[in-house]
Each structure stands twice: as structure tokens, then as C-alpha cells.
Design a protein that fits this description.
Bound molecules: zinc ion
Mean pLDDT: 92
Shape: globular
Low-confidence stretches: none
CATH topology of the largest domain: TIM Barrel
Number of helices: 10
């Protein structure tokens, strides 16, 4: 279902009101974050979240504003109509520690960090937080950025926390298909955060319709090849991740990248699929930086009944302790 901006805003307010009226059961919080920048944040994701009284923090690369993958108008609408926070994800998404090794910290600040924050603030966005590209930073980089913003993110396998770490970092766990976690497990995380009265901090990139993903059964497994029971057709130019068994969390540190799919044969780079799945298991293939809508919806509906939604800077301000 699609809503107009006004309908979505009214619905968001109504839903928050209802959640508050029924708020005795809400304890602990969820902090959802999305990186890079797509216009669907505004047209699809924010209305989807508003339906359950939820909001998120979006970390944008200015290069995606320059090429109009998302616009400043989209970002302002997210902030002003949907209650999102907008943070910086640098200008060009270079790996920051590597960039600093090659060109020095001052150049990184001058080319990648300052202009990103400055452009967003000049557009009326209240930028208070940063996510380093690939969540990769050094103590030197962290200290430098914290003169201008108030927090950054560190990737963590299970980010449930009472608040920011001493060095200004907030932990975050990926919900992308590259780091697949069954929704049943994510619901347990919600329960854990609720029970402990703590925060569950999750990040992704895009939430995509189920039709962007392929799923079926595994017929045969070898270390780098799966035979499956459906024809797999992948879109050229898209990077795909394979979830070898949707009942298991993707355990390896390295995501399973699909190298090719011909008919019912899926090949991957590296790893050993025989340790990750078995004949008869359900597999999933999808855009590496995407989350399937049906699972996302199940997660946020479950979370909305147990946790309050916070932005990153709400947490820095301690609003989750109110
Ligand atoms: Zn990114």
C-alpha cells in the first residue's frame, strides 16, 4: 500500500499516539539505520516504518545526492515529515583508514568529511552523527570526527547495548542479506533488548520487495556449487549474496558472493557450502545490500509491540532512559 506524504505523516502520528496509549508494555529500544542513500527510503521505507510508529536514521554519501539517487528534498522530507535523523556517511564512500594512509588525515577531513557534513547542514539537516564507510575507522579518525559530530558506528555481531561506548561509538548489527539472520532469531534479539531494557541497534541499506529475491530448495551441494529446484535469473550489474540455508545465520566473516547462476546451478566464490547447507534446505539469493520486505515487516511489527524506536542522536541524548 502506498500513502501520500500527508497521509503517511498523519498515520505516523496516529500510530505513535496509539503506541503511547498502550505503552505500558514498551520497554527498551530499537535503533534502525540505513546507509548510502536511495530515494526509496522516502517513498517505501519511511511509510512502511511509520505504519508501526517507527523511524530510522539514514546515513548518506553526498555523491549519491550529486547523482540524484537521493535528493536533498528526500532527506528533508525524511527528517521533517517522518521524524528520521540524517547523518553523514562521507562524500565518496572511500575506506577512511586506507585513504588516510595514502593521503593523510587532513586531506580526508577536507575532502571526505567536512564537505559532507557542511552540505547536509546547509540544506537544513540536523547532522549529528557519522557512519564510516564499511564501519572502518581508527582511534585517530574517531577523535577527529568527534569534534564535529557526536557518534559513529562500530559493526558488532549482536548489538544490544545500554548506550554509547566510552569512545563515542555505538555498536550496530547488519540486517543485509550478506549478513543474513533468520527473522525468528531477530525476534529473540527484540525480546532480549526488551527484557534487559536496553537498545537493539540494527543497520541495513535497502528494503526490497520479495520479488527481488529468489528462493527455493537445495537439491545437491558441493563446496562451491549448489544445484537447486528453481531456475535462477539474476539481473546484470547487481551484486548478489547467497544465503545457503535460511534457517541459519550467515556464520562466516566473509559473505557468500554469487559468482554465477546458470539455470539451476549456483556458483560462489570461496567458502565451503557443504558446511553451510544440506539437501532439502531452503536457500535465498538477493541483492547483497538488501533486506527482504516480508522479513523486515515481520521484524518491525514485532519490535513495535515491545520496544520504542529511537534515532542515533536520541540515544546520544539519553532519551532512551526517560
Ligand atoms: Zn556504506
Amino acid at each position: 500500500m502506498k500513502f501520500s506524504k500527508k497521509q503517511a505523516a498523519i498515520l505516523a502520528i496516529a500510530t505513535i499516539f496509539l503506541a503511547k496509549a498502550d505503552g505500558a508494555d514498551l520497554r527498551g529500544g530499537v535503533v534502525l539505520q540505513f546507509d548510502d542513500g536511495w530515494t526509496e527510503w522516502r517513498t517505501e521505507l519511511a511509510p512502511e516504518l511509520a505504519r508501526v510508529g517507527g523511524r530510522a536514521t539514514g546515513f548518506v554519501n553526498n555523491k549519491y545526492i550529486a547523482n540524484e539517487r537521493i535528493t536533498l528534498d528526500d532527506l528533508r522530507a525524511l527528517q521533517n515529515e517522518f521524524g528520521w535523523e540524517i547523518g553523514s556517511h562521507t562524500v565518496n564512500h572511500h575506506n577512511a583508514p586506507r585513504f588516510v594512509r595514502q593521503h593523510g588525515l587532513d586531506t580526508w577531513l577536507r575532502q571526505e568529511f567536512d564537505p559532507s557534513v557542511d552540505e547536509l547542514r546547509a540544506a537544513g539537516l540536523d547532522v549529528r552523527s557519522l557512519v564510516f564507510p564499511f564501519n572502518d575507522s581508527t582511534p585517530e579518525l574517531a577523535q577527529a570526527v568527534l569534534k564535529k559530530v557526536e557518534s559513529f558506528r562500530r559493526a558488532h555481531r549482536l548489538a544490544i547495548a545500554a548506550g554509547p561506548c566510552e569512545d563515542g561509538a555505538l555498536p550496530g548489527t547488519s540486517i543485509d542479506s550478506t549478513r543474513f539472520t533468520p527473522v525468528s532469531v531477530m525476534k529473540q534479539w527484540v525480546d532480549m533488548a526488551h527484557r534487559r531494557n536496553e537498545l537493539l541497534l540494527l543497520y541495513g541499506h535497502r528494503v526490497l520487495p520479495d520479488s527481488a529475491f529468489v528462493t527455493g530448495r537445495v537439491v545437491r551441494v558441493s563446496p562451491q556449487e549448489l544445484t537447486v529446484d528453481v531456475d535462477v535469473v539474476l539481473q546484470p550489474g547487481e551484486e548478489y549474496a547467497l544465503v545457503p540455508d535460511t534457517k541459519r545465520r550467515t556464520a562466516s566473516a566473509d559473505p557468500v558472493r554469487v559468482s554465477s547462476a546458470e539455470g539451476r546451478i549456483i556458483r560462489v566464490d570461496g567458502g565451503d557450502l557443504t558446511r553451510a547447507t544440506a539437501e532439502g534446505a531452503e536457500f535465498l539469493i538477493g541483492p547483497s545490500y538488501g533486506t527482504r520486505l516480508s522479513e523486515f515487516r515481520e521484524l518491525i511489527e514485532y519490535a513495535a509491540g515491545r520496544l520504542r524506536f529511537f534515532t542515533v542522536s536520541d540515544v546520544v541524548d539519553g532519551k532512551h532512559r526517560d
